[in-house]
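Ticket #4471: structure output looks truncated?

Reporter: J.K.
Steps to reproduce: submitted the chain below (94 residues) through the standard prediction queue, then opened the result file.
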Amino acid sequence: MFKLILMISLFFLILSMMVALYRVIKGPSMPDRVQALDTISISLIGGVAICSVLFHTHALLEIILILGILSFVGTIAFARFIERGVIIERKRIK
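Returned output as attached by the reporter:
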């Protein structure tokens, strides 16, 4: 019964990632696309966590941490790009 619930939740996470992927491709604006990418990364983290429970392993927990860090940095980079047009500001020395 527990495995069935985990498989159903994994199915719904994959379904939500497909809907978010549609929003990334057809999004009306750039902030909508960034929000959809963030939703995909959060769903991916949840999917890896469910797979970790299904496979009875702790090895996937490091992948969850790496995905979380990359998702955070990527969202911040996209937000700065939308706001200013550049990600890394370089000061010129005269």
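Triage note (M.O.): checked the attachment and the full token line is present. The two ends are 69 Å apart (CA to CA).
Status: closed, working as intended.
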